[in-house]
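Minutes, project check-in
Item: structure for the 171-residue chain
Input as provided by the requester:
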Amino acid sequence: MKSRYLIAYFQPIGNQSNSAKVAEAIEDHLEQKGHQARMFAITPVEAYPADENEFMAATKAEAEHRSRPEIVGKVSDGYYANIKDIILVAPNWWNSLPMAVFSFFDQHDNHYKRIIPVILHGGDGAGKIVEDMRRFLPDADVMEPVEISEDELSGDLKAKIDQVSKEIAAK
C-alpha cells in the first residue's frame, strides 16, 4: 500500500491563498504517484483586516505575542494518528509561520511525525520558520523547507512540486 499524507495549508477566511494553489498541486502529484493525500485548510475563525496597514499591524501583533488564534475545524484524531507525513504549506509572516499554524499543531500529538514545510515568501526565504518549528515540535522530524517565492508562484510549479517529492522520498 502506498503512503498516506496530510497536506495542511494556511487559508485565511475570504482569501483564496497561494497556499491552497500549491497544496492542490502537491495533492494532484501525490495521487498521480498512487499515494493517498488528504487536504486540511488551517483557517482562523476570525478574518484578518482587509486594509493592508491594519492587516500588517494585526499579524505583527499576533507574532509578537505568540498568539494562538482559534481555527475552524480539526483533523480527526484517528486520521492524524495514522499518518506519518505532514506536508505544511504556509507563508512566511514576520520570519515565522502564521500563528494559526501553531494552533493547528497544538491540537494534535506530533510525536514521530515528519513535517515537510513548503514556505511561500516574497523574497526573504523561510526566515526562522524551521528553527521555530523544531523548537515548538521537538518530537517531530521537521525537514528542511521547500521555498517558493512569489515570482515562482506565477509560473510552472512542477520543479517545486518535484522538490517536495524528493523530500518525501528522503525517508
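Outcome recorded: DSSP finds seven helices and six strands in the chain.
No further action items on this chain.
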